[in-house]
Structures are given as C-alpha cells and as structure tokens.
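Input.
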Amino acid sequence: MIDFVRGSVALRESEYVVLDVNGVGYRVFCPNPYALGLRDNEPVTLFTHYHVREDAHLLFGFTSRDEQALFRLLLDVSGIGPKVALGILAAGGRPDAVILAISQENLSFLTKLPGIGKKTAQRIILDLKDKLGSVTFSSPEAAVALSVVGSAQLTEGGESWSEAKEALMTLGYTEAEVDRAWLQVKEKANTYDSVDVLMKHALKVLYTM
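Output.
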C-alpha cells in the first residue's frame, strides 16, 4: 500500500494534482486541489489511499492524516465510493466538523453535503458513530470533536444553544462554522446560560476564526 508520496506539484486540475516524484508523475485525486495551499514546484507530502477497482488503480491524496483516516472510514459506509467521500471532505470543511456532525447525529449538516441524502446520512451515522473512537486523529480539533461521542450532551448545550445556533446562522455564518465555534464555547458554557450569553461567547470565537 502507498501510504504517502512526497514530491512537487507539476500540474493542478479541478479533481487532481500531478505530483512529480523523482521524475515520475503521480496523478493524485484530492478534495479541492486548488485550495490545498500547495505551491507549484515546491516539495510537499500527500498522505494517500490506494484504491483498486476493475478498470483502474487510483491514488487519493490528503494534506493531513486526519483527512486520510476520515476518507477511509467513509469508504466503509455502504453506498459511499471514493468520489462521494472526496466530496464530503471538500464540502464539509475540516475533518473535525464532519466528525462532530456524525457524533451529534446532525442530519441537517450531513444532508447538505454533495451526494448525501437523508438515508445515506442516517447510514453514515449508524455505520461510523461507534467507529470514530477507535480511530486515531492527530489534530486537537478532531480530538475535541471525538470527546462528544457517546456523551449525554449531544444536544449541543440544550435548547438555548439550539436557538443561539439558529440566530448565528441568520447572521450569515455557516452551520460548519457555528459547530466549530461550539467546540470552544462549550468549555465556558453551562446548562443555565441564556441564548444571549451563548451568542456572545460564540461571536467572540467566530471573529477570530
């Protein structure tokens, strides 16, 4: 299995990059190739997944181990292939946002991802929620997101937070941004906080994101 490749970006297309590894060009399919933060002709490491099917051998690449791990988990879900899994990573933001959505059974977030209907979202939750804790994610954000798996606080702070979340989204913030803010807000929040208090905490976090 090819676990990673290290080289320089020789070509960038809408679905993939070509990585020059000692004179050999590897076509590596990535989420958002133009938003990878990679500079052409500079050394880079992509963590990869080698996918074999009857008509092709494909290489998928990611800038972090967390993306690689989440991609492989998504492939375990019935009905999700590499293309849909890439779309989830591309549209879902950082891996911790997707992890949090799964752990909180957030159908609203998941069904907004490309190729994911309600039944598929339910299948993702059913198949992966209990598996998340068995996978090692390296980033602190992912670790915090995993901390809510199996927690009794899956209501995201109760009714007050639900109302605060809706209000923040009407201000133009995306659900993914608000969910990421909650990872920090919940450290200061308590059961009795009002909607206004939670919104103030969240806005302070959102302003710095």
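The mean pLDDT is 83.
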